[in-house]
Amino acid sequence: MTKLERQVTICNKLGLHARAATKLAILASEFDAEITIVQGEKKASAASVLGLLMLETGMGKTITLLGKGQDADAALDAICALVDAKFDEAS
Q1: Which CATH number characterizes residue 48's domain?
Q2: What is the mean pLDDT, run by run of 10 residues, along the chain of 91 residues?
């Protein structure tokens, strides 16, 4: 099974805070794929809100998305779009 990788920069003011992490985890869970988020030396499942919060990812940080599974490409596209849309937050 091919592993896919993408990088995206967190651009919303509050970074990957609780509400944003929840949106990301819900989105990741919709796909038949295992998605891992990496920031520096830390890794977390994209489906784990607590794991995502433990990454302590702030505005301007670049994260790496690793995906494997049947829907990995679509999942990475959707997650990148969510991050680029600043998690649909006003600011």
Answers
A1: 3.30.1340.10
A2: 91 94 97 97 98 96 97 97 93 59
